[in-house]
Amino acid sequence: MNTLTDLEISKKLKDYPDWEFYDNALHTDFEFDNFKDCMSAMNRIAFECEVLNHHPEWTNIYNTLDIKLTTHDKGGVTELDFKLVDAIRKIVEVEE
Amino acid sequence: MNTLTDLEISKKLKDYPDWEFYDNALHTDFEFDNFKDCMSAMNRIAFECEVLNHHPEWTNIYNTLDIKLTTHDKGGVTELDFKLVDAIRKIVEVEE
Amino acid sequence: MNTLTDLEISKKLKDYPDWEFYDNALHTDFEFDNFKDCMSAMNRIAFECEVLNHHPEWTNIYNTLDIKLTTHDKGGVTELDFKLVDAIRKIVEVEE
Amino acid sequence: MNTLTDLEISKKLKDYPDWEFYDNALHTDFEFDNFKDCMSAMNRIAFECEVLNHHPEWTNIYNTLDIKLTTHDKGGVTELDFKLVDAIRKIVEVEE
């Protein structure tokens, strides 16, 4: 699996308005109703991380969750990151 | 509940060698065997956060967990932060 | 807090079509898309159990969850059980 | 993968004193310090269930957890059940 080019990433991100690409990684942040909802979402996402064997760098502060995705051993964003984005979006059910 | 002075915090931290005080907050980082163990620890700690109604700023990357504790509405470290430190230590079972 | 009478429980259950009363307890069962969704729902409900300090007897088999609620130390169904029912329904988002 | 014979199961269970075989399934029950510890253990075990794609029938009441393992589509106990037993024991850290 190769890293995606900036152009490929830009094209893909048109379908993912909640995600941005910078610093060689995909980024988003979510705001939940409360801490409990946020922890439950993280817990549910964690199952998908194990399925994909791909893990985020994520920071929780109370009801907010910042997520950064990159494929460390490839040195950039790959299809694997977009697979995890898809799994996360399905769980958090972003409506656009 | 007032913020603790730097001197009070320094004295207390003698009993907590895994924690440091800087940038107006208590900090530590843990390394677990794997992502699953880390998520489970976060999940278990989350219960105690709700009990104390006090929540960390924490970042997980695979098997590592960075925790930062401060009492935002007091503008510094208070006894509440040390209560959460105690709860976290009990769960992660730091042996010294 | 007293136990509710059979009549009181019957009246209340008109608003809770997914719940039944028998054997001195409230009962329901949920079916989720998969095991992971079921475990996440249990985890989210667990936070509310701690808030209420009231806990279910519940059985999980793959994607199914059977829940039984009663107030043991009162010997029957009380308002506390209905509070937990409300919390559970909010999480599982039963649409009727 | 075939079901194990009663003799094979009996032999294996000598190394698992906390588990019993009856009704065509392996059974155990755990008692934790509190509900939160029990839920965290279930949550941690759930990850291993997904890894093995094998799931228990388990009942939680406050700090207790009853676990029943069988391989439904084979009609009995198989090596897969013992793999999940091993994973569970490692998490709950049974000392004998």
Helix and strand arrangement:
Four copies of one chain form a homotetramer.
Chain A: H1 6-13, E1 20-22, E2 25-31, H2 35-52, E3 57-61, E4 64-69, H3 79-92
Helix pairs in contact in A: 2-3
Strand order of the largest sheet of chain A: 1-2-4-3
Query: Which percent range describes the beta-strand content of chain A?
Result: 15-25%
Compute the number of structural domains of chain A.
1
Estimate the helix proportion of chain A, in percent: 40-55%
User: Runs of chain A with pLDDT <50, length 5+?
Assistant: none
CATH superfamily of chain A: Transcriptional coactivator/pterin dehydratase
| End-to-end distance of chain A | 30 Å
How does this model look, in words?
The structure is a homotetramer of 96-residue chains. The longest helix of chain A has 18 residues, at 35-52. Chain A has helices at residues 6-13, 35-52, 79-92; strands spanning 20-22, 25-31, 57-61, 64-69. Helices cover 42% and strands 22% of the residues of chain A. Chain A is α+β, with helices and mostly antiparallel strands. The first copy, chain A, is globular, with a radius of gyration of 13 Å. The first copy, chain A, has one domain (6-92): 2-Layer Sandwich (Gyrase A, domain 2). Chains in contact: A-B, A-C, A-D, B-C, B-D, C-D. The interface between A and B is medium-sized, with 16 and 16 residues. Strand 3 (57-61) of chain A pairs antiparallel with strand 3 (57-61) of chain B.
